[in-house]
Amino acid sequence: MQSKPEWLRVKAPSGDVFNETLNTVKLYNLHTVCEESACPNIGECWNKRHATVMILGSVCTRACAFCNVATGIPDKLDPHEPENLAIAVKKLGLKHVVITSVDRDDLPDGGAEQFIRCIEEIRKINSSTTVEILTPDFLNKEGVIEKIAKVGPDVYNHNVETVPRLYAKIRPRARYFHSLFLLKKVKQSNYNIFTKSGLMVGLGEAKEEILQVMDDLRAADVDFITIGQYLRPTPKHAKVDRYVTPEEFEYYKYAAYSKGFQMVSSSPLTRSSYHAEEDFNRLKAAKKFAL
């Protein structure tokens, strides 16, 4: 087993703002992907009042080989979750909130209506807060992508996660080309939404495959790509094939910009919502400049 390189070592989370965020999340019975996925950036993000809330419960209907979220039979939906989320956003003073979820293949709409209610409730009492969503693929859930796009989240993120060759091993119940279709459908439904997707490296992919994924995402009109190092949550999960160097992440960054992405985040510690607020503001500024 390779030892973790120095550039992936982070400080243990602490601090008053971190504790305030933790207590608020627990008070309103919310889940965060920061905790559930054992994200290495939780200390930095929570101390900046950045949190990624995970709706639809804490149990996923899928078992992807990279993910630390529990798999099993999910609980019933919490009807008060959208209101509680909106109140927590106000209490924490979040200017930009990221909402993600577990996969809910058991629900007729995959949980799409709960995403819509969360966006609407946040905007009722936090009119200046921008909303970024990171959704599942809603595989076989007809018409739900268009419904979410209609309410107009500021950013719609859906991750392809890895290269298509590794899907059977890493995302066995997902379909690469369906994920591309989802991202394209969002743009077709509401062109004003920024679209975003991300993938992990260090799972055994080749450099040429990463470049092909970039081309595929640009063909789907995706604005923003994130690329980060895969870290194995537990011995039960997929092994790390290698630790990608910071220099290689820089190469991916400039390759992505050369292919036409408006925003790129590529570094060992990059995650889907890492520096989401700052990146969204830069994305808006870049669009205004382009106009």
Kindly state the percentage of residues in helix. 25-40%
Largest sheet: spatial strand order: 1-2-5-6-7-8-9-10
State the shape. globular
SSE order in H/E notation?
Answer: HEHHEEEHEHEHEHHEHEHEH
Low-confidence stretches: none
Estimate the strand proportion.
5-15%
Structural class: alpha/beta
**How many distinct helices?**
11
Number of strands: 10
From the N-terminal CA to the C-terminal CA, the straight-line distance is: 50 Å
Mean pLDDT, nearest integer? Answer: 86
Let me know the largest β-sheet. Answer: 8 strands, mixed
Radius of gyration: 18 Å
Keywords, please?
291 residues, alpha/beta, 8-stranded mixed sheet, two-stranded parallel ribbon, 11 helices, 40% helix
Question: What would you say this structure looks like, in words?
Answer:
- With 291 residues, this protein is of the alpha/beta class.
- 40% of the residues lie in helices and 14% in strands.
- It contains eleven helices and ten strands.
- It has helices spanning 16-27, 33-36, 42-47, 81-92, 112-125, 144-151, 167-170, 176-189, 207-219, 246-258, 276-290, and strands at 31-32, 52-55, 59-60, 70-71, 96-101, 130-134, 155-157, 194-201, 224-229, 263-266.
- The strands form two sheets. It has an eight-stranded mixed β-sheet with strand order 1-2-5-6-7-8-9-10, sandwiched between helices.
- β8, α9 (207-219) and β9 (224-229) form a beta-alpha-beta unit.
- α5 (112-125) runs parallel beside α6.
- The longest helix is centred in the C-terminal third of the chain and has 15 residues, at 276-290.
- The protein is globular.
